[in-house]
Amino acid sequence: MIPAPERMIKPLLDGRGFIVWIWEIRREWGIIALEREQFKGRGATMRILVTGGAGFIGSHVVDALIEEGHEVTVVDDLSTGKRRNLNPQAKFYRLDIRDASGLEEVFASERPEIVDHHAAKANVRESLRDPVLYAEVNVIGSLNLLELSRKYEVKKFIYASTGGAVYGEPEYLPADEAHPINPLDPYGASKHFVEHYLHLYGINYGLHYTILRYPNVYGPRQDPYGEAGVVAIFTGQMLRGEQAVINGSGEQERDFVYVDDIVEANLLALDKGDGEIYNLGWGFGTSVNEIFARLKEFTGYALDPVHGPPIQGEVFKIYLDATKAREELGWVPQVSLDEGLRRTVEYFREKARAGNPRKFGV
Fold this sequence. Notes:
Layout: H1 6-13, H2 18-28, E1 47-51, H3 56-67, E2 71-76, E3 91-94, H4 100-110, E4 114-117, H5 124-129, H6 131-151, E5 156-162, H7 186-205, E6 209-214, E7 216-218, H8 230-239, E8 245-247, E9 253-254, E10 256-258, H9 259-268, E11 276-279, E12 286-287, H10 288-299, E13 306-308, H11 323-328, H12 337-354
Parallel strand pairs: 1-2, 1-4, 2-3, 4-5, 5-6, 6-11, 7-10, 8-13
Antiparallel strand pairs: 9-12
Helix pairs in contact: 1-2, 3-9, 4-6, 6-7, 8-10, 8-12, 10-12
């Protein structure tokens, strides 16, 4: 019997588990064909499908991929995404990811090499009201994409998960990837379920994947009229001179990261982080009260906040340890909170100048 190399025994010793250890042995000796051709990586043109590519984060990812010379296809049902966010150089299919036959037509026609999956229902309060919808879109919709990725031999699947909702109320902070998974709402649960399926598709079908657990992302194109995205909501209310409302005490803390830094993580994941999960974040929290105070300064807002009831199912404090992303992906956030907030305020201010101030950002 050939002894397993030391690097393959180590996962068993450091707690990753017997199943993963066996998988690595099988991969090492070629029993399971996970080592496909090397990824082309950044700098070479690839065919990339971005789901949710008309949305806040997805549209920024599309722009960056096109800027790097890739051929990008967008799938979005425009339920929350905006047509105006679409990059004109991307091929666009208006499609719900629950539509398996429609998705297959896209895969058959476009033959994506990479899938960057952002399409999702992403509202804590809505998920509590309609958990079945969140299972249908976030879980079944994602499984449709995974099945087609297997069938059409996609080289890499990048999955936008949530670090803000999968851990629940944290046992320690900042939360790292080893933190127990205890979501408080169907949104966080539905996003985490797909992480398990990615692991299964990696083991059974050789699908390469990287999971990015997002913090509280903010920046241009975020919806200032939605229920999520406190930076955009406050900015919109302040620029319109409306009363801003803080849910609860305002001492809730989040890890606020500017959208450009999240985009960079997606670019790095094109050819790094195979089979891994990465938190993205600064590693420290900023309170909602502090966000209000800074935006009040940057917008010249005159009113004091009004406090409403806290939101059921929302974590009180969460911020993420991104040490693993720094060490393995080379990802480090670059845009400071003040700089990011200023850029966001200026974006919405320009939108207001360009048209009806009550319609900007929509």
